[in-house]
Amino acid sequence: MNEHAKNIQNELKESAHKIWLAGLGALSVAGEEGSKLFKTLVEKGEAYEGRSREKVGEVKTKVEEAATRVKDEAEAVIERVESKLDELVGSALKRAGVPSRDEIATLTRRVEELTKLVEKLNKKAAA
What pTM did the predictor assign? Predict the structure, then answer.
């Protein structure tokens, strides 16, 4: 083989070897940079997760507080409505001549007292 052909062959081998080494270098850099990138992404993710948990906690607290306020207000409204309804029903029953619970209780006690008195009188009359 002539000298010129050997030089070209050596240059091709050397170029092929350099291309091979460049490929290995690229793979190595990609691995290193990929690891760095992965680490950076994990760090950013952890920081974001911490901030988002804090925000979620804040929102949850605000929602719970609002729900408590709404519940308390609803209970107060219900109590006012029940009270007003009791008042209106009581008033309507009174106008219709229906005695109240207290009046019925008083009458019941009076009937019991009179019943006892009648029983005493019956015993005296029988004796």
Answer: 0.43
Question: For 63-96, how does the pLDDT look when each residue is reduced to its tens digit (9 = 90+)?
Answer: 899 999 999 999 999 999 999 888 888 888 788 8
For the chain, the domains span 3-96, 99-127
Alpha carbon distance, N-terminus to C-terminus of the chain: 160
Following DSSP, what letter does each residue of 57-122 receive, concatenated? HHHHHHHHHHHHHHHHHHHHHHHHHHHHHHHHHHHHHHHTTPPPHHHHHHHHHHHHHHHHHHHHHH
Buried b (16+ CB within 10 A) or exposed e, 71-102: eeeeeeeeeeeeeeeeeeeeeeeeeeeeeeee
Q: Are 100 and 94 in contact (CB under 8 A)?
A: yes
